[in-house]
Structure to design on (274 residues):
């Protein structure tokens, strides 16, 4: 995708805020985040808490959607020097210098369990960060704490129930990485996989009532290629760490690296709850 293929919503964003004007990767990532935030249906002027804000991709979209009178608080436990090609510190500093800066506060290197809230937020946002959680109990603990912090929650993640065969490559790649994380300690953004039904159940267990669910197209993103590349890079280490799984892993890798297969990223699912 090039700048000429950006939709009107995304073009308007860049014209207004002058962010990442020469970075095509960030532009297409932002296009997807704007679509997610549109599905969230956030209130104008709202006070939003974003969990796992990372480099601020979704944060920018949230700040744009809620307008000048809104406020978004982004929290992440990663340090300022984490991440590539831009560190979290570099990316968030860049965003704060833009016209969106006055609407955003970032709290990096911050443990959510130590984050104190005195006034409830209108909405809490979980955008593509649930796979960082190693197990469902850890995620449920976060959601239960959020129940007391926010009136509503908007949750987005990759949808492993792929609908097009070219998305199989992405599904296999993240499956390999999730299995790898069970055997080898690492800082990959895939520690576990949660499908839509699991997330709905966890939200309900945390005391939320499901409001709506929908699918947002993400097939144009480069994430399938990125995850495939990373999965291939850890193959030898993974087999050495889990020799009894070698036959299964060989099958997975053959399917993932099928030279005849196209590569499309998985879509995102969105679940909102009150």
């Amino acid at each position: 995708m090039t700048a000429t293929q950006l939709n009107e919503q995304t073009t308007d964003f860049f014209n207004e805020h002058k962010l990442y004007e020469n970075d095509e990767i960030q532009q297409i990532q932002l296009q997807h985040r704007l679509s997610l935030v549109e599905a969230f249906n956030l209130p104008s002027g709202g006070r939003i808490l974003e969990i796992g804000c990372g480099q601020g991709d979704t944060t920018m979209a949230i700040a744009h959607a809620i307008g000048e009178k809104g406020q978004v608080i982004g929290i992440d436990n990663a340090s300022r020097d984490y991440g590539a090609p831009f560190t979290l510190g570099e990316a968030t500093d860049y965003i704060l210098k833009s016209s969106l800066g006055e609407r955003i506060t970032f709290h990096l290197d911050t443990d959510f369990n130590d984050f104190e809230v005195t006034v409830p937020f209108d909405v809490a946002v979980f955008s593509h960060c649930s796979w960082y959680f190693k197990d469902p109990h850890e995620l449920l603990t976060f959601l239960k704490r959020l129940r007391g912090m926010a009136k509503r929650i908007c949750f987005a993640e990759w949808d492993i129930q792929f609908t097009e065969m070219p998305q199989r490559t992405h599904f296999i790649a993240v499956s390999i990485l999730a299995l790898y994380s069970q055997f080898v300690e690492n800082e990959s953004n895939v520690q576990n996989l949660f499908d839509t039904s699991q997330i709905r159940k966890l939200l309900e267990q945390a005391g939320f009532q499901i409001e709506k669910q929908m699918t947002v197209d993400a097939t144009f993103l480069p994430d399938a290629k990125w995850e495939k590349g990373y999965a291939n890079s850890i193959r030898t280490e993974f087999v050495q760490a889990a020799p009894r799984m070698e036959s299964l892993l060989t099958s997975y890798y053959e399917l993932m690296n099928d030279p005849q297969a196209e590569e499309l990223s998985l879509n995102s699912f969105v679940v909102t709850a009150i």
